[in-house]
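Appendix B. Chain record.
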Amino acid sequence: MSLVLTAEEQSLRDSVRRFVAERSPLSAIRELIAAGEPYDPGVWKQLAGQLGLASLIIPEEYGGAGAGHSAMSVALTELGAGLVPSPLLASAVLAAGALLHLDDEAARDELLPGIAGGELIATLAITGGPRGLGEPGASGGHVTATGTGDAVTLTGGLAPVLIGAQADVLLVPAAGAETVAIYLVDGAADGLSRDPLTTVDHTRAAARIRLDQVPARKLAGDAGRALAAAADLANLALAAEQNGAMAACLAMTSEYAKLRVAFGQPIGAFQGVKHRLADMETAWELSHAAVREAATVADQHPDRFSAAASVARVLTSVPYFTAAADTIQLHGGIGYTWEHDAHLFYKNALSGKVLLGGPGDQLDRLATTLGI
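Structure tokens predicted for this chain:
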């Protein structure tokens, strides 16, 4: 593992950072929030097509770039720093990752090229922590499957499902007569209803999905293996996003500490402010190292990925929440206002800390992985 980006990763980072600054600044995101839009389709088209971000972890044989998880984590870090709303996590990471860990070659050939190009938006309908991603009894609900062959139908509900109201296709874990499998559901299928949820984090679209005898196609392969892989991919992707957002909080607060004057000097000269900024920097450095390690392990030593991804999430989600709270407090009165951007990061950190399994779930998962 190297903390220094390769030349290719630096080029990708610079391209995504420049794109975010020019096409999706926080002012534009505020306009999306005000309009009630989950994301900007034009921005997504360019992210997926022009920059090729949706193709990064998808192998070349399925129309992807095959660049790997290190490249994806670099891109997600920059998108996280700008709080850019997009289907990237749900479609090109979770849904694509689940398909790659199933054994359904026909489904991969059918779906992955469209996901890689961004023309097809998919989501993996998972809700709870690592031990309950869409399975029966998960806190977000469950789905049951009845029938066999081409006559399978799904009934039940799940919430919250990322990009659940916008996805063209859904991969839905459901309990059949004997075991849990993953089923492919068309977004326009009869009996499927999708209700957008009002969430704390305005930059993360989610929905409640309900299925009433919805026709579905069972995907071949071990659903447990695919869901476990999705949990690991979620941990790495969220940690990368949050690491970028933490860096943005640090930059924003450090700059303000230089400009805001109290008692005749910048507030950054006061020891109490210095210490909190130093803590924020230290937490970011540790998170950055953990994300880089997890991404490297995902590409080179997949047998160690689960533990590394859990560590990255634990070392990022909680420190990011602390950094976002400190950002508000160190900005004083203005930090608490709607007009300032600090609350956008705070809400993102608050929801991200528990999304798809909070710190306790990740520690449990890590202990299980390590056999403790």
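Further analysis of this model is presented in Appendix C.
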